[in-house]
Amino acid sequence: MGAPLLQAEIQIDAPVAKVWELVSDLRRMPEWSPQCRAMKVFGPLRAGARTINFNRRGLLFWPTTCTIVEVDPERRLTFRVDANGTEWSYELEPVDGGTRVVESRRAPNGIKKVSTVLVNAAMGGVPSFEVELVDGMNESLSRIKETAERG
User: Fold this and answer.
1) Beta-bridge partners for 65
2) Which of these, 54, 61, 19, lies nearest to 38 by C-alpha position?
3) pLDDT (tens digit, 0 to 9) for every residue of the chain, 151 residues total?
4) Among 134, 133, 106, 101, which Cα is nearest to 22's?
5) What global pTM score does this model have?
6) If we measure between CA atoms, which residue out of 87, 101, 93, 92 comes closest to residue 140?
């Protein structure tokens, strides 16, 4: 089953190095993401590193694991959610003395059927959940922007 590219972007009035410092510290993911409650990386941040995450949506609470797919300092950070195969990334680009950040969710091999069944059963269906995910991306990027610009 194909899945659309989900994406949000923001311009931050802070240098790329400062924004990278924030997005690459995955322990801080709960500060940005409205769904993530904890994210722990095992070992250094590098391709192949694993994470364990705890997510919450209303009364639902669930753990996930991820594998870091790409770390290109000050440019791109990508991790794959092991349970459903989706890939989440932050792409940074210097623009006008600041940084453009694009957060994306891709499903290069589609989304596993078990994940779709669970989203349909517990989260109101895939279309509304995808809207919620994009809203969450926008909220995450706004929180990163606020923190980066505050210094």
Assistant:
1) 52
2) 54
3) 467 789 999 999 999 999 999 999 999 999 999 999 999 999 999 999 999 999 998 888 999 999 999 999 999 999 999 988 899 999 999 999 999 999 999 987 766 565 655 555 555 555 566 778 899 999 999 999 999 999 7
4) 101
5) 0.87
6) 101
Nearest Cα neighbor of 118 from 126, 107, 127 is 126
* Domain 6-150: CATH class, spelled out: alpha beta
Q: What is the CA radius of gyration of the chain?
A: 15
Distances (CA, A) of 121 to 114, 115, 117, 126: 11, 10, 6, 10
Domain boundaries, the chain: 6-150
Edge-to-edge order in the sheet of strand 36-42: 6-12, 98-106, 87-95, 76-81, 60-72, 50-57, 36-42
